[in-house]
Structures are given as C-alpha cells and as structure tokens.
## 1
Amino acid sequence: MRRYLAYLIVALGFAGTAMAQDYPTKPITLIVPFAAGGTSDIIARIATEEMSQHLGQRFVVENVTGAGGSTALTRAATAAPDGYTITIGNAGVSAAVYSIIPGLRFTPESFAPIGMIAKTLPVIALKNDFPANTLAEFLAYAKQNPGKATLGHAGTGSSNYLICKLFLQAAKVDVVLIGYRGAGPALNDAFGGHVDGVCDAATSVAAGINAKRVKGLVIASKKRAEVLPDLPTAAEAGLPAFTNEGWNALFAPKGTPAPVIAKLNEALRKAVASEKVVKRFAELASFPASGEEFTPEYVKAHVDAEVKRYRELLAE
C-alpha cells in the first residue's frame, strides 16, 4: 500500500509538471468580487492585461457581486483547481469576511495564494456641496449632528467598508454607513449628491477628486500621494490613528498544481514590474508589490494576520 501511494504521488507530480508545461491552452477566467469600476476591478484588469502578454492567453474578467464578495469567493473556491479560474482578493473578501458573514462555504485554506499585486491608499471624500471642506470641519459637523452624515462603501465586508470602520474608530463620530454592490455605484452616488461621501481607495476616487466631482477630505497614508498633492495625510489633518494600507492579491482554488501557481506567479511578477503597469499604478495612487510580497508564502501569512486583525476590529 505504501509503495502504491508513493507511485501515486510521483505520478501526480509528473502530471502537474506536464500540465504546467502546456498551461495555459485557453483563456483564464478572473473573478472580481465587486462591480466594475472599483479599486479591485481596476487593479485586476491592469495586472491581467499585462500578464496575458507573458502567458499567451487572455483573461476573461467576470464581475460577480453579492453578499460582501462571498458569492464570488464561493464560486472561486469551488472551481476546478486547474489554473483556469482565479480571483482577486483584498482585506475585505479575503480576511474580514470571516468575521462578518456566518456559514461561509470557504475558509482561507480554500485558496492557494498566487502573489500580491499592489498596495492601495484609503481616502475619505465628500460630495461637493457638503458643508465641510476639511477633516476638522467634517468631524465638528458629525459631532454636532450625530447619525446625520452618510458615507457610502462597496458593501459590508469589502475593503472600503473596512476603511469606513477604521475611520469611524479613529474619529469616534456617529456616521451612517451605506453599502452598495461595489465601489463604482457608491462613488457615482457621491458624484450625484445622493450620499454625503465615500470611503474608497485613491485608485478609484483620485480621478473624481482631481476633476472636482467630489472633494477629498483625507488620505490614510504616511505621505501625500503624487496624484493628490493637495490632499492631507491623516496625521497632517489631525487624525494620525487613521493611517492604513490596502492591498490586492491573486488566488487560485486549493489544489491547483504548484507548477501552475509558479507560472502564474512568474507572469504576475513580470507584469507588475513592467514600465506600463508601474506608470499606470502611479497614476492611480497605488504602488506595486515588491520583493517577498510576490511570494505565495508572504500572501498566506499576510492573510492570516489580516483575518486576526479584523476579527479584533469588528468585535469592538
């Protein structure tokens, strides 16, 4: 029996290696857990468009919304582990979701990390006619009018929802949070004045701020973003506790052969290092992964730490 199992392990190893040599022979589906236009969607499209050049196959992006991203993650977790279905994750759908939505059909172990793509910078922005132009003015308004101001986000469990939670925890004000089926719809409602503001990443909101469709309030980074030079950091605005960093990474279903993961990881590294992607990320106030952040081992450890971090935050 032991000899049979040894032969089986060797045979599976050879099969995985052979599969990787031919992989990919058809388009790869990338599941994005949110509506088109949000940070994860933008970063996913930029990265995979360049990855396709190195893999010789295109990526088909599918935006699967619902249940704070868990609908998409359920589909990704139960897909065939052959490298032809992958997904993009972030602090929301890959970490906080486990503390928010009960009865999930997946766990962190349901996914095989491929690698980190980029880090993002959280921003709070307000509709243009809101009666506050600075963070201090907004906090004063919120304290004088508890429960009146509203901030939109990409849905409970999303990374933008976590930005809201971190902001309110630091600011200690009573603001109503309104969930949408993605960052794009939330931002559009802020443009239209239907919600007072949004919790978002600079990646998707910077263009709106620079076009004066919304007004930036604060960016949760240690230094100002080049594309938003007039937007103060949390420390500059008087709220240093609101300093954070978002992230996006690629994942495949558990059981995807290691050689296939390695091939996807290699394509990701090359894509993110390309001049085109580096320039595009810079324009979006996000910055590419580097060094050990590309490794599946780093992503796994990072996800485990994030799961613990948000379990503690959301329990408060």
## 2
Amino acid sequence: MELGESLTQCAVREAREETGLEVEITGLVGTYSDPRHVIAYSDGEVRQQFNICYTAKAVGGEMTPSDESTALEFVAPSAFDDLPMHPTQRLRLKHYAERRDHPYLG
C-alpha cells in the first residue's frame, strides 16, 4: 500500500501491476492474518503475511505476467483443489467459492 491510497485503490493498482488487468472491486471475501503464514523471500526478507481478499471483475487491460508473476490464467473454482498453494491461500479460495453472506474475519 502506498501513501495516499485506500485499501481498494491499492488492490486495483496491485491487480494492474501484477496482471495487466484493470479491475473494479465488487466485494470482500475476508481478512486473513494467520500468524503461521510466514514468507521468506529470496532477498532475505521474512515477514508474517496478512491479506485482505476482495472480489473484482475485469473491466479492461490485457493479462500480462509481471516481475511478480510467472504465468496468469483464469481457473474455475472446480479446479482449485488441483493447484499447488499455501493452505492459507486455499482457505481464501474456499471462502470465495462458498459465496458466503459475510466476510471472513480472521
């Protein structure tokens, strides 16, 4: 997040930077802050990850990988289980696919 940005503005910017897509935020899946979700980066930085997970729709742009992504594709929720990912990422996708009435707060 950059100074002067709201959370949703940050999400829109990050989506554009990492995917090439212009998106419109449509909802909130939840907030995720599992203290066991620790990421060690190749430059030696280690941090406890947290996430605010939104739903969005693409309104423009073209899918283009960036320095922060190696490949991009849309995947049907029925294929989520076949993807390799951290358990906390899997939880976010599970909550998205469930189309919950209220956002997850954890």
## 3
Amino acid sequence: MTDQIHVDAQAGTVVEREGATLPFAVAFALLVTGAVTMGISPVFVRYSEVGPFASAFWRVLLALPVLFVWAYLETRHRGINWRLPRAILLSGLFFSGDLVFWHLAIVNTTMANATLMATLAPVWVVLFSRAFIGEEVGRNAYYGLAICLAGAFLLIGSSYRVEPERIVGDLYGLITSLFFGLYFLAVRVGRRTHRAGEITFLSTLVTASVLLVVALISGNSMLPQTLGGVAALVALGTISHAGGQGLLAVALGSLSAAFSSLVIFVEALAAALFGWLIFSEGMTPGQIGGGALILVGVWVARPRAGK
C-alpha cells in the first residue's frame, strides 16, 4: 500500500485519475449516509436466523448483484477492469479479516468490549496514513480523534469490563479495528485507478470468496428458516454492504482517509439510535453525551481549505 496519492493536505481532498472530486458537503453527506447504513447492520444480523460467519458471507454475496450493476453502469464506456491491483486485492482481504475477527470478538467477549475495541480503527488510519499512502494528517485530525474516542468511550465503554477470561476476545476486537483501518487505506489507494462501484464490487468478490471458506469451516447454520430471515440477509447485503461500503468508497475519492475514518464513529452512534428506536434499548445521559462528543470531534477534524 505504498502507492502515492496526490493530495491537498489542507483541504483533505484527492485528485483522482478518473472523475472529478466531489464538493466537500456532498462527499461528507454521502459518507454520513454510508455510516448510518452500516450502523443498522446489527438489526439485520439479529433477524438473519443464521450463524455469525454465515451472516457475514451472505452480507457480501447478496451485495454482489447490486454492486455489479453499479460497476457496469459507471464503467460502460470502457468495461470493468477485472485486473486486481494490490490495493483492491488487499481491501478485500482486509475486509474479510475485519468481519472474521469481529465475529470472533463478539463470541469471545461482551458486545460492549468488542464494539469499543473495534471503534479504534481511526487510530490506525491516522497513524498509518502518511507512512502507507503518503497522506499528511493535520493537527485537527488528531484533536478530532481524541474527542471522538472520548465520545465512543462514553457511548459504548460504560459497559466495558476488564475480565481475564475475555482478554482473547478483546484482542480479537482490537485486531478487527486494525483490519478495518487498513481497509480504509487500501480503498483510498484503490480509488486512484478505479471508480467507487467498481472497487467495491471487485473487493467484495475477494471478501465473498474468503468468507465462504470461513463459513463452511465454522459449521454455522447457512440457511434462514423464514422469509423474514431471507429479507434480513438481503437487506444486510444491499443496504449495509452495497450501500454502506459503496458510499464509503465514493467519499474516499474526495475526502482524506483520516477524516473519513473519524466520520465512521457515526456508525456507533447510529447503531445505538437504532437499538433505541427498534429494540427499546435505553440510552443513558452519558451515552447521549458521548454521541454529542462524536459529532463535535468530527466537526473539529473537518477539512479547512486555505489554512
């Protein structure tokens, strides 16, 4: 992932080889929408009626038809570039690692512990952006990261427990965050040569291949028992993956990896809100304050042109 991207470090935008960058407001809105659609994924998983690794496999497999149509339409003048440069191959492998270790984490530790560890992904993006993809990270991104982490701890960490028997599960959660952070960087580089739908489609092909093997080895129940379970899996694939990861790829063509990763904290906020709206899972004043801090952190880290 040492490929270099031409970046305006202050404005946080990238000049792509194919297609113009989006205005900040548009890219930001798409990124937030993507974070929200990813945030609703636990709702669909809860209704999916299959094992965790199986749900991860169906998530990416059922996204492929939508992503193929998207990739075909945006590349119809030249055709889909089926070559897999390193960045796209790695993005698929990194996302596979993210999903595999996420499910290992939720099986081996509490949901609060797993979620809190997984939210550390932006730390890796901020730390590795310059070394891996040649993208400078401004001070505001570090300030925003600190505020967002404080917000995430208030939102999720109030239920965190340090227990010796759950250390392995916590470590799986930390590895999850590393894989998701690396996924961000790989997609950012992949957007140099591929359009958003194209890179999401090709990387998802890689992820689906890996997760099929993992799901079969795990012995998970692979098939839902009701139409509701089928509908949940279809929604997981089309809304949370095709929509969420696709919009993330769109935004990463115009926004820096570091700033974009901070906006993904909104996913944790969205998940909490959906839990409250759909499952009547109450939110404490501390959690509400944590959500507000996340929004403040994103605002602090926003790109500033001309400074």
